[in-house]
Amino acid sequence: MTDLSIANSVTPLHIRDVAEKLSLPEEDLELYGRHKAKIPLSFIDHGKITNSRLILVSAISPTPAGEGKTTMSIGLNEGLNRLGKKSVVVLREPSLGPVFGIKGGATGGGYAQVLPMEDINLHFTGDFSAIEKAHNLLAAIIDNNLQSKTNSLNLDPRTISWKRVMDMNDRALRHTIVGLGGTSSGIPRETGFDITAASEIMAILCLADDLEDLKFRIGNIFVGYTFDKKPIYARDLKAEGAMTTLLKDAIKPNLVQTIEGNPAIIHGGPFANIAQGTNSVIATRMGMSLADYTVTEAGFGFDLGAEKFFDIKCQAAGLRPRAVVLTATIRALKYHGGAALSDLTTPDLEALKKGLPNLEKHLENIRLFNLTPVVAINRFTSDTDEEIALVREAVTALDVHVAVAEVWAKGGEGALDLAERVLEVIKEDADSFTPLYDWNMSVKDKIETIATKIYGAKYVDYAAKAKRDLRTIADLGLDHLAVCVAKTQKSLSDNPKLLGRPKDFVITVREIEIAAGAGFLIPITGNIMRMPGLPAHPASENIDIDNEGNITGLF
Questions:
Q1: Is 503 annotated in the active site?
Q2: Tag placement on the chain: N or C end, fewer CB within 10 Å?
Q3: Is 69 annotated as catalytic?
Q4: Do 389 and 476 sit in the same domain of this protein?
């Protein structure tokens, strides 16, 4: 059965019955049909947050075979609920671009999914659309100010860094020229489009405390300079009020359910290779206010999403995670050990051994934050008992908890051992979480701490533009911001071809972008794509709908 057919085989509960499990009265919900609702921010209780246990699900370095973090997060939540714990899973919303591109959906898989699968993967409750509109409103205001004779800020078009966004993979829009068509159509200038998940508005929404904080952060968006070198922010364009108004509903987290009828909260969706890669602070706080255990995930490998979760989100929001689940698959480890993609289902103990150092490095990284890891082996039908035993022995030798999880095939039942291991770690945990760096360190020290300790780089090299950017950041007084490194997800290094655990490599920072509204700086390494393209045969070719509205092809 496909993920979609499994999802369609389940009769979901009415959302009021799901809300009841979290003691949420139906009259306080904002219903979006029978199976979706928005939760008012008034249900966030900071007193309860301190007593809730936050569990992060991460993974080894991603491979084309996939690791299954979202599936593992949902499965673990099901397992905890089966053990009688009041648990909720908090996830990101899928972006339409990847849904129609390569992934074909992002709501878990098999019997570890969130429902309604089709709605979540498509327009859901309109959050992405609102973020897109707010972002593009600022773009329109900027170009209007360039055109204006009476309301001009004397903006230098050459310094404007704000592009437009849309939630679709469209490589033809990466680089564009706007303002053509004569004097009444604007000032011609070079710009482009990013995908909505890469928008700073997305990052801001996912780090904001409430509407007031959201508006303040939007006002801090750095736009560019005037011709006399004065910095211009969104607040100078009087844009923050209208932009925040467009986000008045999008700021509220969404309540849905798992296949087993347990509550799930989904909100926001920044990418992890260019932003913080986690759901919103508001959603996480909501989960922790309503449940004793909150399971969440961070995008890509531990070196990207999890590091940013800890050093940016947790520091900004005062969150203290209690355990980390590191998802690994036999086939991904074999890929890191040199096996070809076409051979990953073939037993290969030698390639598996060679791939284990990647897993070991991520385990070392988890311990840098004074947290105890649990390895979850996401089992596939092609995995042999010998391969599973080899990984078990290697992890146990490192004095790390390990569990085989069969959540795709068995849902919560397949995660019971994992859930028990996680509960054991939380019981033993001394609440000793420590971020990797202090935001008040110098920008270079923050970058080099991440590069050398998390990635394993020998040192960091800065291109000429990056050095100029460091001076600009200092002149603007933004040295105190967190660092959100933009790097390939395919390798611990900034070279996607260096698999496994590369050593003695150099991280090269090409430039450093300013996301003052989000509250972080973005050192750009390697070739980072903010507007993906569709593959030769995109997932959209397989997606269809019949006259009764039944959808097929969403995997």
A1: no
A2: N
A3: yes
A4: no
